[in-house]
Amino acid sequence: MNILDKITADKRNEVNLRKSLIPHKQLEQSVLFERTTISLANNLRNSKSGIIAEHKRRSPSKAIINQSLNVQDVAKGYENAGVCGMSVLTDGKYFGGALDDLLIARASCNLPLLRKEFIIDEYQLLEAKAYGADVILLIAAILTRDEIKKLSQFAKRLNLDVLLEVHNEEELQKSIMPSLDMLGVNNRNLKTFDVSLETSKTLSALIPDDFVKVSESGISNIEAIKTLQPYGYQGFLIGENFMKTDNPGESASQFIKKLEQ
Ligand SMILES: O=P(O)(O)OC[C@@H](O)[C@@H](O)c1c[nH]c2ccccc12
């Protein structure tokens, strides 16, 4: 079994237990269900830099990245840096995140927040909304076209933006549909952890223009972004490069200043 299959199998068990703990009716009663969401896709369309900065403590490919920060400082730092949105990893077992991280980020800043999670069930979209997310991630590698359709349409009904992530042409072809807002190309193969920006370059021409194009993972310098912009990318998802430092907000701030020079 590859790591992605393992993560997904664990996630199914976790979601079933969560459902038994907090019924969906209770999630719908969250005050955050009434909140007007902010569109990350719009922010990206109107931005020069297009940075989406991630909160990520550890990952299966990198073990520990940073365990000593708190979400509040990171969220405020990213907001002050002028990023377009923040991605918050909520998976506990493999990434050391939690749904509460999303809630703390929501309480700390006004950025559009992406729930970075392995989503396989509509229940997780209710959680995303109840804990303050504006955007959800759908990973084509773990979903059928039918599942992508159901989940993305449900997300749109909750006024959440949808970022669909692909890693190859087959995943892209099966996923294109009007209920998606952003198409993300993951430069990291989630099965092998190999990273190559070539993936973003190759797939860019196949993404229809009505979707905001986002390049994800392995971006560690301005040059990478300058290289990808001519391919039509307007969003750049960066985790480790900021999170490995003592002050991710300050790192993001310097990065954006350089980029906008
Ligand atoms: O830390 P990086 O290499 O900058 O990558 C960030 C983000 O793209 C990565 O965390 C990610 C992209 N897609 C995912 C899906 C699940 C978990 C994590 C991810």
TrEMBL record:
Q: Which NCBIfam families match?
A: PRK00278.2-4
Any GO molecular function: phosphoribosylanthranilate isomerase activity
GO term, biological process aspect, one: L-tryptophan biosynthetic process
Would you tell me the protein name for this molecule? Indole-3-glycerol phosphate synthase
Q: Which UniProt keywords apply?
A: Amino-acid biosynthesis, Aromatic amino acid biosynthesis, Decarboxylase, Lyase, Tryptophan biosynthesis
Q: In which pathway does it act?
A: Amino-acid biosynthesis; L-tryptophan biosynthesis; L-tryptophan from chorismate: step 4/5
- All residue ranges annotated as the Indole-3-glycerol phosphate synthase domain in the record: 4-251
Looking at the Swiss-Prot or TrEMBL record, what is one Pfam family this protein matches?
IGPS
Give the gene that encodes this protein. Answer: trpC
